Amino acid sequence: MKKMNPVSIQIQSVLYKNDVNALEQALDNLANAIRVDRESDQALSRARVCYGDASPEPLIDEALLHRFQDKYAPYFELQYTFFDRNSGTAAGHNRLAKDCDADYLQIMNPDVLVCPHLFARMLEPYSVPELRAGMTEARQTPVEHPKEYDPETGVTSWATTALAIFPTELYRAVGGFDEKTFFMYCDDLDFSWLIREQGYQIIYVPSAVVFHSKNLSATAGWTPTAAEVYYSAEAALLMYHKWSAPDLLEQTKRAFAAAPEGAPEHKALLHFEKMKEEGLLPAPHDPEHKVAEFLHGNYGKMRFTI
Questions:
Q1: Is 48 exposed, middle or buried (0-12, 13-18, 19+ CB in 10 A)?
Q2: Region 137-142: what's the mean pLDDT?
Q3: 59 and 15 in contact (C-beta within 8 Å)?
Q4: Whole-number Å distance between alpha carbons of 287 and 296
Q5: What is the band of 226 on the pLDDT scale with cuts at 50, 70, 90?
Q6: Would you say 105 and 26 are in contact if contact means Cβ atoms under 8 Å apart?
Q7: Whole-number pLDDT of residue 83
Q8: Are 31 and 75 a contacting pair, CB within 8 Å?
Q9: pLDDT category of residue 228 using cuts at 50, 70 and 90
Q10: pLDDT at position 148
């Protein structure tokens, strides 16, 4: 593949009650990846890390911020904003990206640990015009996302933002993340489909491996938290509405209505109905499903189940 000219990148994470030691470990890995890039790949001309803190109290005080800024100054600029409210991931990333002047945006979970050659591998698809890459996604370990992808091109249906990179210009062209609809979960799925609506491809990059900590069961399955169950249920209803799947929406609403009062699914249905009553639901997209994929309860074809 043709090598790109060096580009600038803004790396964003929304914080919420994170362990500060884990943040420093993630920053250490980013610094190492930038060091490796300078010594070999030379994909980056400039890097900035932006933290937006949605925690009840600031995780990083002035002394710690100055220590981090001094420590990582040889590798990247570090900015920290205390939001003073939890407005969700979509709104948080939009706020951080508002004045971005970098060529690319990288969205990542704050506890993700990156591989040394991350940037060259994630940016490489943008050097292939025929791919029309609009967003690249890293491979997660120890639990890889089960979405199907083309083993030759990496083309897939959507990208998670555990770690994903996309052009800042394209981010602005699609209007950023839909913060009015999605608080948490499926904001990345919705964003991916908005990019595909513009004629671009989502590219999975299995050689760009990142460690993303998960709560695993004794049988190595993923054990979601109560918050993850609730926001996944809420997001499912909103995705079925926004991306024109009325049959699935009604089927899911019936199932959630049958859940015990107080269960996450029942709460999600109440929230959805409140949004509907207040006229806050978005206009439906893609009625012919040229982009949206709803298959067996998933948002696209799967290679395996978790």
A1: middle
A2: 95
A3: yes
A4: 19
A5: confident
A6: no
A7: 97
A8: yes
A9: confident
A10: 96
Question: In whole angstroms, what is the distance from residue 192 CA to residue 103 CA?
Answer: 18
Q: 39 CB contacts (<8 Å, ≥6 apart)? A: none
pLDDT, tens digit (0-9, with 9 covering 90-100), for 45-77: 999 999 999 999 999 999 999 999 999 999 999
Provide, rounded to the nearest whole percent, the portion of the chain with pLDDT above 70.
Answer: 96
Rounded to 5 degrees, what angle do the CA atoms 124, 129, 132 make? Answer: 85
Query: Which domains, from first to last, does the chain contain?
Result: 7-211 (3.90.550.60), 219-306 (no CATH)
Q: How far apart are the first and last CA of the chain?
A: 33
Which amino acid is it at 179?
Answer: E
Model confidence over 273-286: pLDDT tens digits?
999 999 999 999 99
SS (H, E, C) the chain: CCCCCCEEEEEEEEECCCCHHHHHHHHHHHHHHHHHHHHHHCCEEEEEEEEEECCCCCCCCHHHHHHHHHHHCCCCEEEEEECCCCCCHHHHHHHHHCCCCCCEEEEECCCCEECCCHHHHHHHHHHCHHHCEEEEEEEEECCCCCECECCCCCEECCCCCCEEEEEHHHHHHCCCCCCCCCCCCCHHHHHHHHHHHCCCEEEEEEEEEEECCCCECCCCCECCCHHHHHHHHHHHHHHHHHCCCHHHHHHHHHHHHCCCCCCHHHHHHHHHHHHHHCCCCCCCCCCCCCCCCCECCECCCECCCC
* CA pair distance 159, 246, nearest whole angstrom: 24
What is the C-alpha R_g of the chain?
Answer: 19
What pLDDT, on a 0 to 100 scale, did the predictor assign at position 215? Answer: 58
Q: Taking residues 231-253, what's their average pLDDT?
A: 97
**Owner of token pair 């591989």:** 115
Angle between helices 226-242 and 246-257 (to 10 degrees): 150
